[in-house]
Write a structure and sequence with these properties.
This protein is mostly beta strands. It is built from no helices and 11 strands. About 30% of the residues are buried.
Length: about 120
């Protein structure tokens, strides 16, 4: 059994910052790609940023230069530092992790966090 617990969301004024965390626990043998997604009201879920096991990162154009994704492999934890927040960043943010629960497992299974709400408003 694997659990992902997110934290760090909240209400912030435009231009402010937040740091999201996603901590994994349970049967985790190895982690591949980790990512942050978001879903705004009335919109589809979109990939915001991802990071590979080797540290390679990818960002959606709208957050480049403002958001930074990082991971702590020893703690099975994913982070998203969000700076210069804009009202259009308002959404529920979800972490997604592709992992294996044991050396015996060949495939990578996807797990999702419960979501954390970010509201950017004055």
């Amino acid at each position: 059994q694997v659990q992902l617990v997110e934290s760090g969301g909240g209400l912030v004024q435009p231009g402010g910052s937040l740091r999201l965390s996603c901590a994994g626990s349970g049967s985790i043998f190895s982690i591949n790609v980790m990512g942050w997604y978001r879903q705004a009201p009335g919109k589809e879920r979109e990939l915001v940023a991802s990071i590979t096991s080797g540290g390679g990162t990818n960002y959606v154009d709208s957050v480049k230069g403002r958001f930074t994704i990082s991971r702590d492999n020893a703690k099975n934890t994913l982070y998203l530092q969000m700076n210069s927040l804009k009202p259009e960043d308002t959404a529920v943010y979800y972490c997604n992790i592709a992992l294996r629960s044991g050396a015996w497992q060949r495939r990578w299974d996807d797990y999702w966090g419960q979501g954390t709400r970010v509201t950017v408003s004055s």
